[in-house]
Amino acid sequence: MTPAPETSARGTATAPSPGLADAWAHPLLGRMLRGRSARRRLDQRHPWLLDTAVVLVVFLLSLPDLLAPGRHGPFGDAMDRSHVPTAVLIAFAVALAVPLWWRRRNPAVTYGVIAAVLLAQWSLGVWQQTGTAALVALYSLALHGSLAALSWAAAVTAAEMTLAVRLLAPIEHPFLGLFFLLGTATAAVAIGLTLRIRRLYLAALEDRAARLEVEHDQSVRLTTAAERARIAREMHDIVGHNLSVMVSLADGAATLATNRGETSSDALRILADTGRQAMSELRRVLGVLRADQHEEQLLGPQPGIHDLDALLARVRAAGLPVTYRTTGDLDTLGSGVQLTVYRIVQEALTNTLKHGGPDATADVTVAKDTAAVRVRVADTGAPEAGARSGGAGHGLVGIRQRAAMYGGTVSLGPPADGHGWLIDVMLDVPPGVHQP
């Protein structure tokens, strides 16, 4: 038999977390996240780089105005700036560009300074390309500043531009100029708000992915702890029963030795007292697990190999055809190993009932050799029928925990031919582990 590759794509197995990796794999979201992460790393290493570049670009826009004082304005008017000294024009350009260096740290103050400089410039009847600094300031305020300050800035911008076009620096086409100015200002605010919303969305996406990862890990830990507690309760019953048998035999042997006058009676009584002490400690350490009222109390002995026939009969009655084969002397296995085999078969068939589909069949094989027990449960259900995108079910987690108690290995997944589902468990059972 070829073991299946270990996977957890179906049933109650632990599936991959739908966390940040899924978002990065998305073609659009992944590109946005990668680009945002790259820009963030560059900005964290060199926070001054982007701000300095913006200042230089805005200042370079003023060079045509400074080098050609008689050029036409943006709205068809002939601008004669001969009455304004070049030093004043340079001062205006610097005063408009330099505040942008603080546009992300203090966007409201940056906009206020630029708005004041623009008002003074327009009062002298001067239009310069450096006025685009106001658009950059509005964009930065929409992206980084408060929404209340943005609303005031939008109102001030509209009033200031209207005043400049109609009174302070009249132009040849006032309505066209005002439409252009207000349109570009609106576009700057809209772009800033759009990027702000996208940034909030990406931050929320990263936060949600991180929380999903944490919740998935917590779910796995809780499921593992629950399975370990369940196994501990079952082993408590088995070990307690065996200790009770040992104590009873030791007491009986001590009594018989005393009646016969043999010297071994004292050692046998010490053995019985030690067994009773071990039972008391076992109840104290593991008996607290019985306090869990949410778990079903066990009212009968723990199941073993012989109980598999009844289990398979119930599964067949549920509509799943099952064939069952055994190899080797399974009766010599200890009660703990028998319980482990029973639970593995139970969980595997439960997985098939849930996810195998209506036409599935199952084949159960339990084989024992000198030092190992192999449990193999194969079904003909479609693997994708039970594929799950998240969660940590108890069934396959419990199989792994039980196999780990005996140093076993677990293989889960479609078999070599790709049809159905295979659970293949190998348990290491030392020769001394036998039924008492």
TrEMBL record:
Residue stretches making up the Signal transduction histidine kinase subgroup 3 dimerisation and phosphoacceptor domain: 227-293
Transmembrane segments: 46-63, 84-102, 108-127, 175-195
Keyword field: ATP-binding, Kinase, Membrane, Nucleotide-binding, Phosphoprotein, Transferase, Transmembrane, Transmembrane helix, Two-component regulatory system
ATP-binding keyword on record: yes
EC number, UniProt record: 2.7.13.3
A GO molecular-function annotation: kinase activity
Location of the Histidine kinase/HSP90-like ATPase domain: 337-420
Domain of life where this protein originates: Bacteria
SUPFAM superfamilies: ATPase domain of HSP90 chaperone/DNA topoisomerase II/histidine kinase (SSF55874)
PANTHER family attached to this UniProt entry: NITRATE/NITRITE SENSOR PROTEIN NARX-RELATED, NITRATE_NITRITE SENSOR PROTEIN NARQ
Protein name per UniProt: histidine kinase
